[in-house]
Amino acid sequence: MATAERPPVPESMLTALRAILGALEQCGEEDAWVGVRWRVAGATVAHVFGGEDQLFRITFRADPDEVMAFEHLGAPYFRSGWGSNVVGLVLDERADWEEVRELLTDSYCLQAPARLAERVPRPGNGKT
């Protein structure tokens, strides 16, 4: 039985993600086994890829207390099959890019060394 090919991530989607993740200190982009991922200090912040179902997904880290909430929200969110704090989001024409920015910023702050995370402007940390 033939397996469907995974589509490459559209350049427009990568451009939007680069604008978000590229603004985060020492957050580097690299090709992943499929798609593209961004890492800080060796830890993955986000991974975007096309699925065999032709949908595009991004996975990111969430606070452990929020993982179950994302899982219960259902589509377009999903719980990843790896990592206890990895959540995913289907990216399509309905994606709220401001929400994506917030989720990826939170993921970065969870993965980055404290000295980098504390410099990120976020509500509640005294920086805006």
Describe it for me?
The longest helix has 15 residues, at 97-111. Helices cover 31% and strands 25% of the residues. It is globular. The protein has a six-stranded antiparallel sheet with strand order 1-2-3-4-6-5, with helices on one face. It has a single domain, classed as Aspartate Aminotransferase, domain 1. The model has no long low-confidence stretch (mean pLDDT 91). With 128 residues, it is α+β, with helices and mostly antiparallel strands. Helix 1 (11-21) crosses helix 3 (97-111).
Subunit arrangement of the protein: single chain
Number of strands: 6
Structural class: alpha+beta
* pLDDT < 50 runs, ≥5 residues: none
CATH class: Alpha Beta
Largest sheet: 6 strands, antiparallel
Any key phrases for this structure?
4 helices, 128 residues, 6 strands, Aspartate Aminotransferase, domain 1, six-stranded antiparallel beta sheet, alpha+beta
Q: What secondary-structure arrangement, pairings included, does this model have?
A:
Layout: H1 11-21, E1 28-31, E2 36-40, E3 43-50, E4 56-61, H2 64-73, E5 77-79, E6 86-91, H3 97-111, H4 114-117
Antiparallel strand pairs: 1-2, 2-3, 3-4, 4-6, 5-6
Helix pairs in contact: 1-3
What is this entry, summarized?
The chain has 128 residues and is α+β, with helices and mostly antiparallel strands.
